[in-house]
Structures are given as C-alpha cells and as structure tokens.
Design goal:
This protein is an alpha+beta fold and 225 residues long. It is built from five helices and nine strands, in the order H-H-H-H-E-H-E-E-E-E-E-E-E-E. The relative contact order is 0.12.
C-alpha cells in the first residue's frame, strides 16, 4: 500500500527532476501555486491530506512524465544525475519550448548557477520561448525587476540569455560579479584584464570591472517587450 510520504515524496522528486520547487511544479501544471506546499499536506487538526488523482494527472501531463516514471519516484533513492559544471543539462528546457525563468533579484543569490553560468539547482520557474529547444538548448530567462534598466527594459520584461555564447562589442549582456551583483549592460570594450560596460539607463554611470571580479557574462539574445 502506498503511503502518504511516498506520494508526496514522488511529487517532490518529480519537481526536483525538472529543476522546480513544488510550487513551481504546481504552477506549471495549472494548479494553485500553494497546492503542493508542505503546509498543505496536513490539515489544521493533523489529518493527512493527499494530492488528488486529477492533480497528479495534470502534473504528469505538464512534465511529460509517464505513470511508470512517477511510480519510480516513489522510492526515496530516486533522483537524477547532475551535469558537469558548464555543460547544458538535458532537463533545460524541461519540455517543449519552455526554458528556466528567474528574477534578477534572485539571480544574485547563490545556488542558481554553476561555475559556467548555466542554470543549476532548484527554485526556477519556466517561461515559453519562441524557438525550437534543439536550437537553444541552454538558454534561460531573467525577469526584469525595478526601473534601473529603463527606458530599454521595463519592470516585468523577460530577457532571454544564452550562457557560453561568444560576446562582442556592443552586445547586450548580463553580468554577474563574484560578489553576487547581477546587471544588464552593453559591452563597450573587453581587454585581457577588464571589461567596460555601458548602462542601459542614462541616469546610471558606466561600469568598468576587472575580469577577476566577474563570475560570468552572458549574451542577451531576445527580450519580451
């Protein structure tokens, strides 16, 4: 007989397999984002709450997982292999033309990128990207938060970023410093020791960074505006 912990554990491991939080998995399946929260797994009086078969069916449809694959996740040791640093993971994008999505504010925190600037870890949402996944298998999206990139990018705009792509002068880029600062700029100049960046907002000064202070730099290839 299947236990309460096994069913919820399978949902958690399916979310992890697709680099999502339980709430991100619920959103992707068209459910209330809190549907799979741990606080919802027990009622106020301590009774066990079970996910509905309809919810599980929607999750399987949204992720492309089969019933057999879901059953495999019932085992506590079920998991997925991590990719080497700097190499795209087959789970990005998770399916179809979906790609990982993260807010700029979250991008400055640790745990969301590997050493090569590729998506890693949990906590990513997904967004649809108008290109075949086979063509852009490693791209991800950053959502603009705030007005610091006006007038070019507004709050809520989504920037599609391609890590590992060659960047050239006048490219629009996203840069993450070793201290966790994340910024969208225009690459003006790059030398063996430093990069010069032009701010998108004329009210903000240009920046010059030593390459030793740069964690990664990635090219912006598309923006929703």
């Amino acid at each position: 007989m299947l236990s309460h912990d096994q069913i919820w554990g399978a949902i958690d491991r399916l979310a992890e397999r697709h680099e999502l939080t339980p709430s991100g998995l619920a959103r992707r399946a068209g459910l209330d984002p809190t549907s799979f929260n741990k606080s919802k797994r027990l009622s106020a009086d301590g009774r066990l709450r079970w996910p509905s078969t309809e919810s599980i069916a929607k999750v399987l449809d949204a992720t492309g997982a089969s019933v057999e694959q879901f059953l495999a996740f019932l085992q506590p040791d079920a998991g997925f292999s991590k990719r080497p640093a700097g190499q795209p993971d087959g789970t990005f994008p998770p399916q179809g033309s979906s790609i990982p999505l993260l807010g700029f504010a979250q991008a400055g925190a640790g745990g969301f990128f590997d050493d090569g600037g590729f998506p890693a870890g949990q906590g990513w949402d997904v967004v649809e990207f108008p290109a075949a996944p086979a063509q852009k298998s490693a791209v991800y999206a950053l959502e603009v938060q705030g007005e610091s990139m006006m007038p070019l990018y507004r709050d809520g705009d989504v920037l599609i970023v391609e890590p590992g792509a060659q960047v050239r002068r006048n490219d629009r880029v996203v840069v993450r410093t070793c201290e966790g600062e994340v910024m969208a700029k225009v690459l003006l100049r790059q030398s063996p020791r430093s990069i010069e960046l032009m701010s998108l907002n004329p009210e903000h000064p240009h920046r010059t960074l030593e390459l030793s202070d740069v964690d990664w730099i990635a090219r912006i290839i598309w923006a929703s505006q």
